[in-house]
Amino acid sequence: MSDKIKKTLQFILFLGLGLFFIWFSLKDLNAEQRSTIIENMKAVAIDNRWIFLVFSMIIGLLSVVFRAFRSVILLEPLGYRVSKTNSYHSVMICYIANLAFPRLGEVLRCTFIQRYEKVPFQKTLGTVVTERIIDMICFGLTFIVALLLERDKLASLFLNKTQTGNQGLLSNPSFLLFIIIAVVLIVLFFIFRKSIIRWSVYQKIKNILLGFWSGLLSIVKLKRPIAFILYSILIWMCYFFMFYVAIFAFPALRALGSEMWIASLSCVVVGTIGFIIAQGGLGAYPLLIASVLLLYNVNKEIGLAVGWVVWTTETVLYILGGIVSLILAPFTNAKTNKDEHPTTDKA
Fold first, then answer.
1. Which residue from 155, 207, 235, 299 has the highest number of Cβ atoms inside 10 Å of its Cβ?
2. Which pTM does this prediction carry?
3. How many Cα atoms occupy the beta-carbon half-sphere of 280 within 13 Å?
4. CA distance 144 to 156
């Protein structure tokens, strides 16, 4: 199966999931309830409430800047001083590409840095994976904090308190089959390793893995570890305030009073899962936001309106930002383009 077909199937799968979540969130609503959702979404234009969405986008833009700066720090131990401007463009291009095809953004981000900063693709990929690992750790810590503060509410979303009778992992046939196949492949490699190491494809894979590993190791050789940690914290603070500021556009949520900040934290951690399971969070993000807000006595129609407005705000930010970066990158790297395509003097 060609890469093009695989990417197309992957796109259809993730898009299909998004459409399923849209259908699932609306299937039990009558015409009046659906009209209420639309009216609540339109209401953000009343009394200049849309200003809160603009501020939310500005905060989102800051998160991209902090991520770009953090990326520069990760590449320093590998001996590369990457332009902060190019790092920013690469992150924005990554975001807009991921809205179209899952994981395409990471590939284009590494390709962009390779083209304009001459950093080998595999090494940049290693640092990108390192960033993803750090993000998962940050997400996990944020989730734990939210769970500690709102244990009962969040537990009701994720924990099944009835006896499910699920099999243990070790007794799961699929898991055992995976272990058997892995062991067989390892044994075969050691038996035929002298022949395998001469294969050109083996050498290519080895070089990719070595570059990838050097990228991962960059985190233990950071020249500015404090700045790296600070940027990581600021990125997730931006994610929180993006949502917190945006919900001021909805008077019904202002009524939460002192609960607004903890409700926002709960929405951020649960909403992040929506971006993981569906293409760009389509459908899943609004549904999860509505589910969380129900725990704070916000009705489903308003919750879905909040989810769709916040999702649209973030998506528009990344689309516009990505387009601007695609346009500006060739101009901010004019010297690089000139060096790659030298002109010849006419006689």
1. 235
2. 0.74
3. 28
4. 15
Q: How far is CA 115 from CA 109, 119, 205, 306, in A?
A: 10, 8, 21, 40
Spell out the domain ranges in the chain.
29-159+180-332
The phi, psi pair for 247, rounded to 5°, reads: -75, -10
| pLDDT tens, position by position, 96-126 | 888 877 778 888 899 999 999 999 988 888 8
Q: CB neighbours of 274 closer than 8 A, spacing ≥ 6?
A: 21, 281, 284, 285, 286, 287, 288, 289
Residue bearing tokens 């960059």: 218
pLDDT digits (tens, 9 = 90+) for 223-246: 888 999 999 999 999 999 999 999
Please name the residue that has the structure tokens 């290693």.
126
Number of CB atoms found within 10 A of residue 53's CB: 23
Q: Which residues, at least 6 apart from 63, have a Cβ–Cβ distance to it below 8 Å?
A: 234, 235, 238, 239, 242
> Is the Cβ–Cβ distance between 253 and 244 less than 8 Å?
no
| Average pLDDT of the chain, as a whole number | 79
Token match 């093009």: residue?
4
Which among 116, 62, 76 has a CA at the least distance from the CA of 328?
116
CA distances from 146 to 72, 136, 188, 264 (A): 30, 15, 47, 10
* Torsions phi, psi for 130 (to 5 deg): -60, -45
